[in-house]
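Prompt: May I have another protein with tokenized structure?
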Amino acid sequence: MNHFAIKSIETPSMKSEKHFIFAQILLRILATAFTLTAAFITFNSTQTLIIFNVETDARYTYSPALKFFVYANVIGCAFSFFSLLLASIFGRTNLHPHKYFYLFIHDMIMMALLLSACSAAATIGYVGKYGQIRSGWMPICDSVTKFCHKMTASVIFSICGVIFYLCLTIISAYQSSLNLIITPRN
């Protein structure tokens, strides 16, 4: 009867290892920049509207979904920066294969968090743009166009951050799989 065991093999060549570390660092810098930009735009997106001498503000703080969106981007930015530091340290040392798995888990969690935040913000944006007549919610983007345009830009930047994290997840999973092989034991 053959038994299978997981056995580590030699790490990939130095050239592919350098490409992997370079791609990790570049994508983490981009993820940090895009999530920071999304959070910054959202923090600064307010618009005051005067209707019949009554001032009304449009702010992200009025919606729990938009609060979740901005805080998820702040968390994504902070963890991107933290993982950027770790990837830089890993690039200078010989990396154990288990560390790739931890990067994979980190990237997957950050991607899921940002993706859910983008979905929540896009849902609120859709209701703001088109309304929900059955529920009695009227569209507001005709009145507060500046706010809606800023939130749209913020969601687009955050979606780019999700795409960078998707790439990081794929790269980390691939690199982790290169270090483990299933071989029959005699």
